Target: Carbon monoxide dehydrogenase
Amino acid sequence: MTQCKTSKEIGGMGHSLKRKEDARFIQGKGHYVDDIKLPGMLYMDIVRSPYAYAKIKSINIEEAMKVPGVITVVTGKDLEKYKLHWMPTLMSDTQMVLPTDTVMYQAQEVCAVIATSKYAARDGREAVKVEYEPMKPVMDPFKSLDPAAPVLRTDKPGKKDNHIWHWQAGDKEKTAQVFANADVVIKQQMHIPRIHVVSIETCGCVADYDKVNHHLTMYMTTQAPHAIRTVIALVAGHVGLSEERIRVVSPDIGGGFGGKVPVYPGYVIAIAVSFLVGKPVKWIEDRSENLQADSFARDYHITAELAGTKEGKILATRFKVLADHGYTDAAANPSKFPLGLFSICTGSYDYNAAFVEADAVYTNKPPGGVAYRCSFRVTEAVQAIERLTDMFAKKIGKDPAELRMQNFIKKEDFPWHSPTGWIYDSGNYQAGLQKAMDVVGYAALRKEQAEKQARGELMGIGISTFTEIVGAGPSKDFDILGIKMFDSAEIRVHPTGKAIARFGTKSQGQGHETTYAQIIAEELGIPAENIQVEEGDTDTAPYGLGTYASRSTPTAGAAAAVASRKLRDKARKIAAYLLEVSENDLEWETGKFFVKGAPEKSKTIQEIVFAAYTNHPQGMEAGFEATHYYDPPNLTFPSGAYICVVDIDKETGAIHIRRFVAIDDCGNIINPMIVQGQVHGGLTQAVAPAMYEELIYDGEGNILNGTLMDYLVPTAVESPKWETGHTCTPSPHHPIGAKGVGESPTVGGPPAIANAIIDALSPFGITHIDIPITPYKVWKALKEHGAYDK
Ligand code: MCN
Ligand code: CUN
Model:
């Protein structure tokens, strides 16, 4: 009998297989959109508005056309002739591709210069003269709703204000009653500022329209190739480019983080130009354009309230949100909930009264609402509930860990119905927090803190015990422009037992080439190294909704498992035929079927697959391939317990993160090393909004920190040594018991840091500082609270 290989030997689930894709990345062989060079390719550069709100009086292209190499300049009026000057956003809002008369935000695309080289295009851009008539922009979302404020979206017939949508969840009356009768009420106004994804690779594309075949190939940095193809078809349908004539190819991506979900005007302009001039057109944003014009997230103003007992029991929460979406709701937020999944804001705690209410408004900021490593607004929700929880503990003088332990939903209470309507699939919050406390040495740290405080030193310990919500669908609740959210896997096994698997998702660095192969390896017994994983080409991959909201594992990962199981069912039939036994007499063991009680009689998956092409049972279809479109029955609810320890220099307000322990629970893990990598990267991105990043606009709509000189991005230097670990509570409804993890660290990280900082400052009576908590804000708060008084 041939010894079967173990799951580890074939690179199955649960093993830290080295990432297959890294061989090319670390050797400089990655293939990014800017690496694409097509014969006759032209380059596009974009003239952008210096004003946040202005009428365009004239666009003079005369000098630009004289620049050697400049072919043409395309304006909104040119696009209007083809009805290509407007496009839908993924939130079913609309957005100008190029303006015909008014610019609505600073850095908005005004016109595009096309040239034979990118340098000529840039020179041409500088030579275009645009005359504007500036108007007073609306920059404050609260004033945007003022009846005196100008109506910004005059393109919308009948629109009389700047309100985009209202949304609410939970029981308003019941919650109000609980609040009215509660011993303790905490109320805090919070702002989660506008930030930027700052992926290493900016956005860009090569639009290649082939006139002869009336066909468009769009190479672009997108996290959702199929969904984007559908959107392009909606726009380019005006020039007869229907979906079968459009191929979207997303090559390697240098970070997406949500910023590469939406369709940006630059893409559509490139398509339009390629269509008009009949040549491929490349557009690659430079760093400043990227930072100033697109990929903006957050900007939530939250009034957060918590009601509880003197003993520390949380009874109810209430959240009122004002979301500043800028010029348009670009909110890559494919769900029927305009507020995304913010209503997970009741957190990990057991109480049954909550009410969430939100309004979104237009302002003259660039399009907002992009989902930045957030699971559609979960970062905002978790910041609110975890800050509130800490404030509550402080108010009643209880240790925040103890208070959390007291309020956690118990592991036996899952599936748990949240007061805002979610059904949490599974969790064990006590175990996670206990583990984090053990690893960090919680009791000893509190002792040290007390000693330090007695000496006037500032040390803080912050906890965040968050519940994430990832894996959109189910299709009944989630869609993009009506397209239901499932995800797909197609597995094709070649006669020699090697496979190619294609997915509707698209990795931007998450390691899908490795982890999907591991799932299939585990389920089918084909070594992961023999499974080629492909994503990102709409001509070959099955339709899928893409990678964001940590949905790839919950949806496409599940599809991979189910498709593998379909193949295993076929394999069983073939094995029974080959071994001349009944299917019921066969047993599966990694990579082979054997006869029960006679293990020497077996057929390996490779032998079975070969037979599928050469010697299969009569009446059975030849070949060995399966496709599955997986529509999840529910979302998955990963969780985590994070503890952060900070030391603060009282004189300067400088914050030093001394320790950070992150215990994540994403159910069964496919690749522990990749999960750890996700958490490391995500935690560094959690330091960013907690302590550094915030895009600031002045009253005229000018961005004040629109370059990386001013917009601070944390690097390895600012990152502590991350101490990671996990607990495992499998998802009961997911085929392999996995939950997503990609966004957990950015969701759970910021409040742990904020809570640690506030904890350090609490001896002075400081109860809250909005993120990013900078040394200046710390110093100012200390000063205001008399810390420097003699
Ligand atoms: N994984 C695992 N076991 C689990 C869960 C996940 O081994 N139980 C692995 C997965 O197989 C996958 C990775 O961890 O290789 C992330 O999986 P998942 O949580 O399903 O998230 P997605 O693949 O859908 O990735 C999306 C998520 C999001 S929404 C953002 S934003 C983000 C992130 O991932 N952007 C990233 N991580 C990123 N990492 C990199 N390098 N670059 C980005 O742009
Ligand atoms: Cu919330 S950002 Mo990710 O969903 O691409």
Remarks:
- The domain at 39-135+203-284 is CATH 3.90.1170.50 (Aldehyde Oxidoreductase; domain 3).
